[in-house]
Amino acid sequence: MDRLRDKVRKLLKEGKVAGYLGYIIKDSHPLPHLFTPERLEEVDRAIVAPGDARYPLDKLLQQLAGASPEATFAVQVRGCDERGLNELYKWDQLDPEKVVLVGVACPQEQADYCECAGPWPSVIDYGEKCQPVTQSRRVSRIEALPGAEAFQEWLGHFQKCVKCYGCRDICPMCFCKECSLEHPDLMSTGLVPPDTIFQLVRAIHMAGRCIDCGLCEENCPADIPLRVLYKKGNALVKDLFGYDTGSPEAGVSPWKMLGEEATLETKPM
Amino acid sequence: MAEKEFEPKIIGFFCNWCTYAGADLAGVSRLQYPPNIRVIRVMCSGTVSPHHVLRAFQKGADGVLIGGCHIGDCHYLRGNFMTIKRMRFLQDLLKFTGYKEGRLHLEWISAAEGPKFAQVVREFTEKIKKLGPSRLKLAARAA
């Protein structure tokens, strides 16, 4: 923790950043907090959030950057947060020149829980690299089910939805001003549970964009396994287009350009 | 009383330049094909969003057929590159959620391929008839 605090203190003191977006203990709760050079003493209380008390820092950073576009901010990132930043750079939502990373490597149990394939960022200021999980057991279980059973299972989950939009509102990658989930021509209005396609529409939008932070699933009051759906979406994007979501080397998202050639063939009827 | 044969509802999204013209050719050549298909003309198959397909299923379509120009023949040069990306992805995602494979079909049909158009519509309708009413439709009805 000292290493992380020293780095933050140095960044703030030297005026390299206008603020550091991280976590603080407030009334014994870990909460997101913007540390500023004016209140350096707060850095002594800067922490790394425990796994079950995470917030969408990438989303908060977008708001900060929107309010002060000239300022540079440091931000605490896990592997997923950094993937999120990489995607947001690609979608022109943040300027990579104006972001400084303070990296946190996730402990093994967090990586196992998330079934995370990249549980550390490119910069590590806290924690040690652990063993990544490359295969998601939750996804393979559904894949192995016969179609009718898989459908029943998903239908059961989808019908629990209370349409709180919590998955969208907490998602660091949901930055659209207008949302198709609220578009009356695309989604029935005034229905709870919503249309069966509600989660599928979100899954389509998340493909090649979801950075697998899992906040949607943790936030969901109905415990819908959204993460499984989005993990599969990303796996498909990787299989079909070779696009590795959140990787800085992956290039432009397949949904953002037409491409120089069509590499796929139509499926036989 | 004899049970009525299941008549599926099929939505077709056809591009203005190739498949729709192909449908026209099938029509003027007096080729027969089943009337289960409801055609929506779009300027390019690349404008068909996965939203539209999902919405069609939600509203009770038993099958969705997308028709576009052959790769390389697109009136907008590369519009159908997006069509194939989207539809292949959607086909696989629907499969994952247990939605029967093959209810969403993409076919390249040029303006000169009237017989192919009639053939594809015939085969697709037969296939959907065999698959029966869509699960999503049944689920929507039960709710």
3D structure, described in words:
The complex is a heterodimer of chains A (269) and B (143). Chain A contains 10 helices and 5 strands, in the order αβββαβαβααααααα. Chain A has helices at residues 2-13, 57-67, 79-90, 108-114, 137-144, 147-158, 166-170, 198-206, 215-219, 226-241; strands spanning 19-26, 29-35, 46-47, 73-77, 99-103. In chain A, helix 8 (198-206) crosses helix 10 (226-241). Chain A is globular and about 65 Å long. The N and C termini of chain A lie far apart (58 Å). With 143 residues, chain B is of the alpha/beta class. Chain B has helices at residues 19-28, 50-58, 79-96, 114-131, 135-142, and strands spanning 10-15, 37-42, 63-68, 104-108. A 4-stranded parallel β-sheet of chain B has the order 2-1-3-4, with helices on both faces. In chain B, helix 1 (19-28) packs across helix 4. Chain B is globular and about 45 Å long. The two termini of chain B are 29 Å apart. The model of chain B has no long low-confidence stretch (mean pLDDT 92). The interface between A and B is large, with 44 and 43 residues.
Q: Please give the count of helices of chain A.
A: 10
Element order of chain B: H for helix, E for strand: EHEHEHEHH
Total of helices of chain B: 5
> Percent range for helical residues of chain A?
25-40%
Q: Please provide the count of β strands of chain A.
A: 5
What is the subunit arrangement here? heterodimer
Principal-axes shape call of chain B: globular
Neighbour order of strands in the largest sheet of chain B: 2-1-3-4
Question: Which band does the percent of strand residues of chain A land in?
Answer: 5-15%
Alpha-beta classification of chain A: alpha/beta
**Low-confidence parts of chain B lasting 5 or more residues at pLDDT below 50?**
none
What average pLDDT do the residues of chain B reach? Answer: 92
What is the N-to-C order of secondary-structure elements of chain A (H for helix, E for strand)?
HEEEHEHEHHHHHHH
Strand portion of chain B, in percent? Answer: 15-25%
What gross morphology of chain A would you assign? Answer: globular
Task: Determine the most extensive contact between two protein chains.
Answer: A-B, 44 and 43 residues
Number of E-type strands of chain B: 4
The N- and C-terminal alpha carbons of chain A lie at a distance of 58 Å
Q: What are the segments of chain A in which pLDDT stays under 50 over at least 5 consecutive residues?
A: none
Helix content of chain B: 40-55%
- Specify the structural class of chain B: alpha/beta
